[in-house]
Amino acid sequence: MISIVVAMARNRVIGAGNRLPWSLPEDMKAFRRITTGHPIVMGRKTFEAIGKPLPNRTNFVVSRDPALSIEGCRTVASLDAALDQASAPEVPGHDQVCVIGGGEIYRQALGRADRIYLTLLDRDFEGDARFPEFDWSDYRVLSREERADPFRFEFIVLQRR
Ligand SMILES: NC(=O)c1ccc[n+]([C@@H]2O[C@H](COP(=O)([O-])OP(=O)(O)OC[C@H]3O[C@@H](n4cnc5c(N)ncnc54)[C@H](OP(=O)(O)O)[C@@H]3O)[C@@H](O)[C@H]2O)c1
Q: Which domains, from first to last, does the chain contain?
């Protein structure tokens, strides 16, 4: 199964200046819970935003630069190759491959994802990276939980019909 894990503002913004535009500790916790033990696939810019490999997850970084090498990560030349390698039986937790961004990678992965772990913020943010438009009717809602701190947001799990 391929899962997208994303936090998105009401206006679809997911990033600004290669950073998250908000600080939501509860969402960071949820991200850790969802992804730990599973392979994670990210774009090179998202890796730079995070700055280090995330522990207890096989980190795949997608880049068109064949010379790129990052200690603690597997660098891959295309998203397709990353998804293939991440779902190989020897990769711990390969039953669920987590695509963790950013915008360019989400755009290419959306059509292949079975599930979206969406943290939906009930606020607009300024930014330069966005999550692609999608048709909600293609998905059924597996769960939906509201939070109010430090502002209203929701944890929504969407499964492709
Ligand atoms: N809110 C969230 O949940 C969330 C999650 C993740 C990231 N973000 C935010 O999103 C922003 C980053 O997103 P972004 O769209 O700018 O960048 P990105 O998707 O993280 O990375 C883009 C890079 O990935 C590589 N790439 C993309 N498609 C490829 C392909 N088909 N084959 C090979 N390489 C490919 C290229 O790397 P090279 O240039 O090295 O070739 C490209 O420059 C940041 O602001 C970050 O904080 C937010």
A: 2-6+37-160 (3.40.430.10)
